[in-house]
Amino acid sequence: MIPIAPIFIRSKEVLEKLSALLDEERSAYGELDSDTIISIAEQKQALLDEMNQLNETRVNILIKFDIVDRKKPTEEEFKSWLNLQDSSLDNVRLLMRECEALLIKCKAKNNTNARVLNTLQKRNKHLFELLQGHSTKNKVYTSRGSTHPISSKHTLGRA
Length: 159
Description:
By secondary structure, this protein is mainly α.
């Protein structure tokens, strides 16, 4: 029997922690808590490093048992081999499906967090430019309600 079930069990645990951490990260972005954001980024990196290590270990085991090609191991090779096995590896199949579902969920959360972060960065950049007077869109309202551009000499950044 190939000892890959413990690797999938640990991968599932790591992905569950990562999913929870991504939820925390999104909340931290909402609160603009930089210390928490930095701490979460470090924790995420540690979890991702562990996932990479688990994946390397899994691939090395699969190579050792000649399940995948030594020079170019692929996930598809492993999946097709796993589908040909008897019911003794049903727990591995189930764990693999659970890990894949968690991975998709984590990727979606991470993409959402990236969009939130990008929006926050754009907003901060725009506010900074407004304060410095570097924006080409510096305008003020006239008494009639229309707008007209103003010189950067008349902004807070120049005061």
